[in-house]
Design brief:
The structure is a homodimer of 251-residue chains.
Chain A (H helix, E strand, L loop, with lengths): L13 H15 L5 H7 L5 H28 L3 H15 L7 H11 L4 H6 L5 H16 L2 H7 L6 H15 L9 H24 L3 H29 L16
Helix pairs in contact in A: 1-11, 3-4, 3-5, 3-7, 3-11, 5-10, 7-11, 8-11, 9-10
């Protein structure tokens, strides 16, 4: 395990910085988490998949808001024109024809009630705290740090390519229709992460800023990891640790 | 398990509201959490106690800041004069002679390095997200809601009376000096919670405000519960789920 807290102390070239960022992903992205491994191994109960979809909805639902927070810091119209595509992707034409609606469809296809998902009331408190920390980060930190925190998208093709074929093969109630969300994401993520990576390579031009972007990506990996930790703790091993008031799968 | 989401729909007398708030504590305060039960049962390893102290420090350290956030909303000088005692209690005369210093002493007495504790760098991300959510709540919500979120102190004498004698009896390396933090707390907490409860009883004078204070106390119980969930998941069962970068007890 690398100590990323002093990774940029000497100043890095753009290529070296990118290599450190990719190393962060290799060590800390949530495709290394046991819950993901249990998902792709076919070992999750239907209740655990439902809990995953219901909790992850909170993350999906906040994406356009965190991207709007980033727009509030962006003074360059060309940057904003590029970045606002992310909001359009998730909200769609009318708010309910983009990525959030497709994630809701994923959850309801797994048998979770749409209103329960949308209200977010049954999500784990730990999920809400993690998602809230992500939104606050994009409000409070510099534009550069907020952009860098989006760079987990560099690694999302990996996890999607692990997740989708495995889910179709291992869970007979999961269909291509269930997972329609993921068919759009790789192309969008590649476009978005290319832009964000080029921005970070260009603007992280001091050791201090380089350390900030590394820390931002570590932070974002912590968010995604903590969300799976919370699911594993609450719903793993029969659900004996579900906190008061959270979603309880039907027996 | 009660559904506190509609508890105040009809309007409650001050006494009825207090009864609902006490019911929230009876059902959701973290003295019901398995990690607390393992602590009082003498079943935590030294590493688990160290992790508890190190992570809980993040919560202790934010208390004066959340109380300052509450002061920013308080227009009544008499309210502020009462509430600022909380900041004095935790920071002490010079910043390091109050409750935070005593908590640091607790952690170092258990063998954790003081700088590691104070930097908060080795705390679980989930702990930081929960503590951050608490601080943000006190900034963003109404004065009434922020005051109500402090009412977990109503129940702290219960958990302290369970914790302290059990820790002294069950862990031979824990002494009265280790636990000096707790000798001051019951008197402070009683004074503070009496004031906060009287404030809430007086100002939660519509069904909507009553529901807000109930929700605020549920939220705060969720914070404390999520912190123990994170410890249990990471450090229970031999520490196999410690997330990347977090505190690792010596073998």
């Amino acid at each position: 395990m690398s100590d990323f807290h002093r990774a940029a102390s000497g100043g890095l070239s753009p290529g070296e910085l990118e290599a450190v960022l990719r190393q962060v992903g290799a060590e800390r992205y949530h495709n290394r988490h046991p819950y993901h491994h249990r998902m792709t191994g076919g070992d999750l109960s239907k209740g655990e998949l439902q809990a995953w979809a219901l909790n992850r909805y909170c993350y999906q639902a906040v994406i356009p808001r965190k991207d709007a927070a980033i727009l509030t810091h962006a003074e360059d119209p060309a940057f904003r024109a590029e970045w606002r595509k992310r909001i359009e992707d998730h909200d769609g034409e009318d708010g309910w024809s983009g990525g959030i609606a497709r994630w809701l469809h994923l959850a309801t296809s797994l048998g979770v009630d749409a209103d329960a998902v949308k209200s977010q009331r049954l999500a784990l408190p730990a999920t809400r705290f993690a998602v809230g920390a992500y939104l606050a980060f994009c409000f409070e930190r510099s534009l550069l740090e907020a952009v860098a925190s989006s760079l987990t998208e560099l690694f999302s093709p990996v996890i999607i390519n692990e997740r989708v074929p495995a889910m179709l093969a291992k869970y007979d109630y999961v269909t291509a229709d269930t997972l329609a969300y993921f068919t759009r994401r790789p192309e969008q993520a590649a476009r978005d992460s290319d832009f964000a990576l080029a921005y970070v390579r260009k603007h992280a031009d001091t050791p201090e800023r380089q350390q900030q972007v590394i820390d931002a990506l570590v932070f974002k990996c912590d968010i995604l990891w903590a969300m799976l930790d919370a699911l594993q703790h609450a719903y793993g091993e029969g659900g004996g640790n579900i906190p008061p008031g959270a979603f309880r799968p039907e027996a």
